[in-house]
Amino acid sequence: MAEVLTHAEPHDEHDHKPHGWRRWVYSTNHKDIGTMYLVFACLMFFIGGGAAMLIRLELFSPGLQFFDPQFFNSLTTMHALIMIFGAIMPAWTGLANWMIPMQLGAPDMALPRLNNLSFWILPFAFTLLLSTFFVPGGAPAGGWTMYPPLILQTGAAFPMLIFAVHLMGASSILGAINVIVTIMNMRAPGITLLRMPLFVWTWLITAYLLIAVMPVLAGAVTMLLTDHFFGTTFFTAAGGGDPVMFQHIFWFFGHPEVYILILPAFGIVSEIIPTFSRKPLFGYEAMVYATASIAFLSFIVWAHHMFTVGMPLAAQLFFMLSTMLIAVPTGVKVFNWTATMWKGSLSFEPPMLFALAFLFLFTIGGFSGLMLAMVPADYQYQDTYFVVAHFHYVLVPGTIFGIMAGVYYWLPKWTGHMYDLKLARWHFWLSAIFVNVLFFPQHFLGLAGMPRRIPDYAVQFTDWNRVSSIGGFGFGLAQLLLPYIVWKCVRGGVPAGDRAWEGAHGLEWELSSPPPFHSWTTPPSDAVIARGAEH
Amino acid sequence: MSTTGVAATEQRRRVRRSALLWALIAAAFYLGFIIMALLRGAK
Q1: For a designed S-S bond to A253, which of A213, A271, A281, A460 qualifies (C-beta 3.0 to 4.6 A apart)?
Q2: B chain contacts of residue A185, beta-carbon cutoff 8 Å
Q3: Closest residue by Cα to residue A94 from A418, A486, A491
Q4: Structural domain of residue A117, as residue ranges?
């Protein structure tokens, strides 16, 4: 931003502060909308988690215990859809809403009304999706990947699923537009692109990914819709269509989607580790370029999800090698985080604990991803619990721990109170232990040949399934601590101070705790920027 | 209009222009992909 801007003049659309229910329904304030996103994500996390508990309950013993196979498949499908589109993505948008204007020295998001719209689409989308449990034929049961021809057998829930996916996609795209426009236009003078916090950078790249790939998903599900209702045969072999084409289109969306889910976590960890190491981030620019490289590579690796459909050797080699290439920028990140801690003055408050667990456990998910990238090995692992273990290591101690780390890092800023550190540590240790009890045995089950998405299994798999289920129940129960800790912190506690953490840097820490309704009504001074924007 | 007023007006103009650009890009992707798929399906 070359020009000097001030935010001294009131922005009419930002300034009203309604009260009661109007404050939330009509809200155009980035913090209120951020809060709504986070509350919504938390609600969906517990609904999706409830489905996971039922899955683990059924799998506690071999044989059919509680549910018929159709309902079990609905549980797995809905668990994935709810967690991906209802919990993780809205949680990231909530954190973006809260933090991006504060970190850039802006009074609010650039497009506040659009912000309101993109949030309020979500409750309708998920009401529609969840109501499929009560329609004839039950909830979708063909997996979150919606592969035809199986998904075309869905009953009355089918058009509801497609419309819900469209709504979620529209919400994500609107949110992404808002993030890009805010970052490109609302930075305070002096905040150049390479002075932005890593969380903002990772979100900017995530927003580009969202705009690029959500339309692909929309196109794919629209083709499913027309195959189902309007007689087209895009994916029906009998009419000259190709079901494998759906897999290509879906994963062209699906793999970048994986990075949409994880990149903001990279940003948060890149904020937290320097704070609690009391050192600047090692290799800031390398981190930015590594994030951009990962995003670029995410577009050219999609077929590693479908090696077993049969593809030319050259294609197998290309997708195998391009997938392995992702380990390079990811390795840059892991080494930079480690180097940041090297000879740092470390302390282990809850955000740092979650960030460190992220570092170790996400790396395990990365390693099993490399194993899956190898075509001959993937032929053995395809559709086994090894895959389930892999992506849950990436998404739970990866993404979810990244979200937890972010919440525990910025909660004192949001509320003005320090939360109960002892309880938060309990939350961390219970989560870190049980998440491994839950998912690590699934590697063994997969290697031993247990297929995924089944309600019953051979007796030989019983022991590790029991261990996994116990881990699941423990992990699920431990998560109840989070809303309690947040609720307690919102109600009161020890004042946190403006800079809640001794080693924290960033413009958000230059604001009061809690911050004013409009974050930066006047732009930060050069001195404040120099202090806050140091990496 | 004061200097700050000019700057704020300019910022609003840039926000609008940028929002419009990205909305067009997103809509072109979103609708373009669906329309292209449906046109190919109709052949």
Answers
A1: A213
A2: 11, 14-15, 18
A3: A486
A4: 24-196
